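Board notes (copied after class):
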Amino acid sequence: MMPVRERELVILTPEHVPIRLFAAGLGSRFLAVAFDTLVVYSLATGASLLLSLALPFGFTSGLTITSTFLLKWGYDVWFEVRRQGRTPGKALLGLRVVDRRGLPITFQQSFVRNVTRMLDFVPFFYGVGGVTALLHPHGRRLGDVLADTLVIHERRAADFSRQLAEARRFNSLRTPRVLRRIRHQIRVEDREFLLALVLRSGRMDPKARFDLMEEVGGHYRKVLEVDDPHLSGENLVKDLLAILYAPRA
């Protein structure tokens, strides 16, 4: 990995393709944390009210403390691992947690970065974490440093995907057989990967871009059993992405 300038990192893939990641700012991260905190305590309050109506006070007190603890420490880990690094607050702000190499975050990394919030939080609301993020060239708090993670901005993805879907509305993949295979063979991880690839392809070296697109396109050509010999790897990738992000009526 090569740092380029503040808030930007360039990562070289095994194919020596440069991919740029843009670190999220402290302001957007704070708003995301504030939103998630509000959600957690709203859920905890709702659970406490329901328990108080159904159980005696002694049981309610203990269960309320337990449920609040589980929500507080499980909320971020669950969303980061199961929702491609996005809690509801991060998704709202267009943020995502990734491995420092740009890979999806693992359970171990999410656990470490969230357990370390206890240190980031002192002496008051994210005192240590805020100072660390301000001093770090890529805005990483202590938990991110220890877990080897990075919070990035993805604000362009939605607009880009809509433009791509509109630009490639008509393509050779729109046949009943291929559409059926897309529904059964393409997973959420494929969708995320293809969008990230196309978003970053404009910054790649032309030859590296061609080679990578042909390799990826060849993979999905086999998965979807596409038999159009005139469809290039890059156009196959874009046509597939256009179908995945096509606006729904």
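Comment from the instructor: The two ends are 42 Å apart (CA to CA). The longest strand covers residues 8-12.
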